[in-house]
Design a protein that fits this description.
Distance between the termini of chain A: 51 Å
Order of helices and strands of chain A: HHHHHHHHH
Number of helices of chain A: 9
Strand content of chain A: under 5%
Number of strands of chain A: 0
Largest interface: A-B, 32 and 30 residues
Structural class of chain A: mainly alpha
Largest sheet of chain A: none
Radius of gyration of chain A: 17 Å
Number of domains of chain A: 1
Oligomer: homotrimer
Chain lengths: 214, 214, 214
């Protein structure tokens, strides 16, 4: 009971940190494209909730995460206002590594949770893995499409979706052996986040399609 | 009864005028991007019905507006053919203000109606307001994404989504006090359209994100 | 019975060839945009299944085609890996005409099938025709949006969506007279694919919107 509470609190912490990291990536991208504050709010919102919402549309799940937990919508709006005040004040940029860690663990949690929801809905394994990747990655894809960019996750040669894909299979392996519970969730998060952080530290590259990858 | 009929006819008129204004914005944007008539039809269709359709997908409502009222689909196709003939004949552009007024009242109606549908579905207030904004604004966002542009509503610094957002709260305030009926709808339309027309007349700007807003 | 088996095998063959042609168009476009292999997989997947998935979302049909037949997901992943190896080996490009034929018949099948699904769901005729076009065409639209291009089908002046639209009405005409069975499907496929191949052979153009179409 006590252990479950601790695990629950830990997962909530990862969820909050991950959502804020996703949201912040949207705000930063909107800033780069010189959007106004309305555009920043929209792109931030899509970056934070787009992946989970697309997964829920595909799995026909209602209500959406941000409908059940509508406090998150207020949090994203607050983040936009705070970010705007921060930029007005021309403060120095915060260091990058906390956001990279929050993003890595958040993506791990969202991918594992997305894989688990598809599993609970009785989907085939490859579809479960895809739903995990969609959950973790498509907020960023929507962010980039709305900013009129080729999605970074498709073209920057840095492992991201691949980490979510491998982590989804780690979730599925444990889920087959042991049920889709805490242990599967932990395996998915650990593999996804671990691979992601290792890839960043080692500078691993996703291969390109041409003969001379950049 | 008689009053209700008059109100109903008025709302139908706003709906038709607003849908045509939304559709026309799609046709004009397709022209600017040198699309062919197929592209013009598609972009016109998304501009006219995209916002309401996204709202219905998110709220899991069926059938869509344009399925129930499939005459609107024919009207949009007719608008594309007429617009094409008009451009072939190289007539002078029509004056802009009727379209701005039709757009402002149409957006007011669609936002208030979208807010009301989310309210009827029992969503939290902030989600109702977002659904109102989505209904009024996302046709234009889809139009711009299909035209490979950064959505104008995110970056042109002209108040548009903000008007819909404030109007949605006006709807909600009256709906809490008096039920989600004619009076709430009227409040939503009046606040959204009034703010929008005032913003255009006064040249109000939505703040940017940098230190030197354009 | 025997005839039905033959027809069934023929339709399966068209479905497989059409899906691979759609998928390949995604892979080729991803290559042109210098995406990495993750982007290639995503764009290939959207090109292959995007149109049918959007139709199913709009008609509220579950499970999706690629969930029921999850072997197709593996086939698309295999195509991406094979295409990547092919490009690494710098083999000469394969000839274009098999892909054009597979695409034309595949689009014919997907459009007719999409029209038929909307018909079975009791939609108005114009909505059935639109659903047929969406099924045949929107995979390519999503492919181009993800590649940050104006959708080719909207702007290249080559008849494509128009062929699907006319074929959808051929399906509907036979379906009204004779029921939505094999004969309607055959009519839809024949008209769509025939028009498409004729348009390519004769160099027919879709009219533009300006006074001097390119």
């Amino acid at each position: 009971m006590n252990a479950n509470l601790t695990v629950g609190a830990l997962l909530s912490g990862i969820e909050i940190a991950g959502t804020l990291a996703f949201a912040l990536s949207g705000f930063i991208e909107a800033t780069r494209k010189r959007m106004d504050i309305v555009g920043a709010a929209a792109v931030t919102f899509f970056a934070a909730f787009g992946g989970g919402t697309l997964r829920d549309l595909l799995l026909d799940r209602r209500p959406f995460f941000w409908v059940t937990h509508s406090g998150y919508v207020w949090a994203v709006l607050a983040l936009v206002v705070l970010g705007w005040l921060w930029m007005r004040a021309a403060r120095p940029s915060p260091p990058a590594w906390p956001m990279l860690w929050a993003d890595a663990f958040g993506m791990g949690l969202f991918s594992a949770a997305g894989t688990g929801m598809a599993w609970d809905a009785g989907q085939p394994a490859i579809v479960c893995a895809l739903m995990g990747v969609v959950t973790g990655v498509f907020g960023g894809v929507m962010r980039d499409v709305l900013c009129n960019e080729v999605p970074a996750v498709f073209s920057d040669h840095r492992p991201y979706a691949v980490c979510a894909f491998v982590g989804a299979w780690a979730f599925l392996a444990v889920a087959v052996a042991d049920g889709p519970g805490w242990s599967a969730l932990a395996a998915g998060i650990a593999v996804t986040a671990g691979l992601r952080l290792l890839a960043l530290a080692r500078g691993w590259k996703v291969p390109g399609l041409g003969r001379t990858p950049p």
